[in-house]
Design a protein that fits this description.
mainly alpha; 0% strand; globular
Length: 654
């Protein structure tokens, strides 16, 4: 019997993949030019932009404003060339006004470069030309964001600009001294707390390089390797295809940073297999969307959010990776437990072994592709090298290692294609970082972040649990329909300070808001990842979204675990304490899965499910007494399940 491979399933889903990407990920709606010279011009410009970022990461970047302004100019230039002005516009031609927009984008950077010294010296006292060019940049960034990701970020940015201008008229704690347009432009354009701020700095360095790393890895066959390896390891187990979806989507999601793209890419392969095994349409879609969203929580790359978090907190990248590891694994454990219990409850078998690739064969053919990832981790965590330097050599290592076998060897053309695709892939992220710079600029100028933190604390009456619940709701609302990085940046600016003011360590506070900003992708009513998965599975979108929430329930509780128990983030703890809290957290996550599915060894009555869930909640904190009570609840649940199983076996006819 023919073995199941990614290549055999993908062609049938190609058109559907493209349709779903364009429907649920607006960043995918780009132009494909008919004119050969125009297409080639865009291709080589993209390669040139990639080479600039690649080479300067090795030899060193220009001065701060010069590098960031040039980066923004190049990204805006690409945006106006590849993104049409509206959904109805032609994707085959380039209108004259987009050429004007692209040239104006370059003109802003030229202005900064030509008059650089005087430009910096005028910080705080901009002249008329500064205001004109700053206004032009704000308009260009907002228009680029509208084209790429729609109106949400644009409207939010405009509201903050209005707040900066007219906030003096607001009552209560949100009133500020008031600023005119000149002061706003100075802060957003000339200062390094606006468009040319931290978010653009991270996009121009870390994010660009790691997206390039992802496209290079993809070109040499890493996607197929992850899928085949997951199939070989888990495909034949009970409910195997669902486990394959969880494992493959987790690995790929950490690298590509887009939940929707991950759903459409891996889901085209895994969802049909899950349905064939016997999982429902909604459950199949939910497994894929939950696992894809979780990829952005999973080290080492975390969809590039780890680099922004490290920059915002002023800590080493390795600290973020180490702290994020246990919560991310708990999240995936929660999904796997429910997948296993659902398979046991419904007696869903795996794929016959003869139809699956063998681990030995997969590793022989593509196992060497793990070497660049191992090299990257070594460079990041143990070598003492900078993140940028590590990323540069990881890309080089990937290209070199790919040459080891013919099946993974990249041609000269494929390397160039990977660089061009890297630039196109980074455009949406970089523009989002630029437009978020407008919001962050107004927040830092007016003190809105501090006021927002005070408002959340007042509403929560200084009660930590109530404040956490309000922060969670705030993050999920702010994260609706936004790409992961701007969602995190906005929530980190507005919601995280409230937790820090209550004494929560900054890293734990940022990780908390990041988790819930990500979960907006699977939570109705705006659950883009769940809706894309439903498009592949043929299931009901809302039901798929609700099932995704159910599957990710452990993920909704894990952030509370590490807030009350920072040892899970390995913050200021000892190895023995870390081991103890990790073990109790694992037990708690398994109990959540049992309570959610209503099954362990046999069907569970409601009272037992409630007992299991209550026991899991008791294991949230590091309190030894509560842990003991939670484990006692677990013992009661297990004894009841063993008894129910024995009764069930004896009641079967001989």
């Amino acid at each position: 019997m023919a073995k199941i491979t990614l290549d055999e399933l993908k062609p049938d889903m190609k058109a559907k993949q493209e349709h779903l990407l364009e429907k649920f990920e607006k960043e995918s709606k780009t132009r494909t030019f008919d004119h050969f010279l125009l297409a080639q011009a865009v291709y080589w410009i993209a390669i040139g932009i990639a080479l600039y970022h690649f080479i300067t990461s090795f030899i060193g970047y220009p001065a701060t404003h010069l590098h960031r302004s040039l980066h923004v100019a190049m990204i805006l230039f690409m945006t106006f060339f590849i993104y049409p002005v509206s959904r109805k516009s032609s994707r085959k031609t380039l209108p004259w006004y987009d050429i004007v927009f692209a040239l104006l984008s370059v003109a802003v950077a030229v202005y900064v470069w030509v008059d650089y010294i005087n430009f910096i010296n005028r910080m705080g006292s901009p002249n008329t030309m500064d205001v004109i060019m700053g206004t032009l940049l704000i308009v260009l960034v907002l228009e680029a964001s509208r084209r790429i990701s729609g109106w949400p970020l644009v409207i939010l940015s405009l509201l903050f600009l209005l707040y900066g201008l007219f906030g003096r008229n607001l009552p209560g704690i949100f009133m500020h001294r008031g600023y005119d347009w000149k002061a706003l432009v100075n802060h957003i354009f000339i200062n390094t707390e606006g468009i040319y701020g931290t978010s653009v700095d991270v996009a121009a360095s870390y994010i660009f390089l790691f997206i390039m790393f992802g496209t290079v890895m993809n070109k040499c066959g890493m996607g197929r390797f992850f899928n085949d390896l997951a199939l070989a390891f888990a495909g034949s187990t009970k409910g195997g295809p669902a486990k394959v979806a969880v494992i493959a989507s987790g690995f790929l999601g950490s690298i590509n940073g887009s939940a929707v793209a991950n759903v459409v890419t891996t889901g085209a392969f895994t969802i049909p297999l899950m349905k064939k095994t016997g999982y429902s349409k909604e459950f199949s879609g939910a497994v894929e969307s939950s696992a894809s969203v979780g990829g952005q929580l999973l080290p080492p790359i975390m969809g590039a959010a780890a680099f922004i978090m490290a920059e915002m907190l002023g800590v080493k990248y390795g600290t973020i990776v180490i702290s994020a590891a246990i919560p991310a694994l708990l999240y995936y454990l929660g999904i796997l437990v429910q997948v296993q219990l659902r398979a046991s409850k419904n007696n869903l078998q795996g794929i016959p072994k003869e139809e699956l690739p063998k681990v030995r064969d997969v590793m022989r053919e593509r196992g060497h592709l793990l070497l660049p990832i191992a090299f990257l981790l070594y460079m990041l965590l143990f070598s003492g090298a900078t993140v940028i330097f590590s990323a540069f050599w990881a890309i080089v290592a990937t290209i070199v290692v790919s040459m080891a076998r013919k099946s993974t060897r990249m041609t000269y053309k494929q390397i160039l294609d990977a660089f061009a695709e890297g630039t196109r892939a980074v455009v949406s992220v970089a523009v989002a970082c630029a437009v978020v710079g407008i919001i962050i600029g107004v927040v830092s100028l007016t003190g809105f972040g501090l006021n927002m933190a005070n408002a959340i604390i007042q509403l929560g009456q200084s009660n930590l649990m109530l404040t956490l619940l309000l922060t969670m709701v705030t993050c999920m609302i702010l994260g609706m329909g936004l790409p992961s990085i701007p969602a995190y940046l906005i929530t980190a600016t507005m919601a995280a300070p409230a937790l820090v003011k209550l004494g929560i360590p900054p890293l734990a506070a940022h990780m908390f808001v990041f988790y819930f900003a990500m979960f907006a992708n699977i939570t109705p009513p705006v659950a883009l990842a769940s809706f894309a998965a439903a498009g592949l599975s043929g299931g009901d979108p809302i039901k798929t979204g609700l099932q995704s929430v159910k599957l990710s329930l452990a993920g909704f509780i894990v952030p509370y675990m590490f807030i009350y128990n920072t040892a899970l983030l390995l913050i200021e703890t000892t190895p023995l304490v870390a081991i103890r809290v990790t073990v109790t957290a694992i037990v708690g996550v398994c109990m959540i899965g049992m309570a959610t599915e209503g099954y362990f060894l046999s069907e569970m009555k409601w009272v037992i499910r409630i007992l299991a869930f209550a026991g899991a909640l008791l294991l949230i904190t590091a309190n030894v007494v509560q842990d003991a009570i939670g484990l006692t609840f677990l013992a009661v649940v297990l004894l009841y399940q063993f008894h129910a199983k024995r009764v069930q076996q004896h009641s079967k006819p001989a």
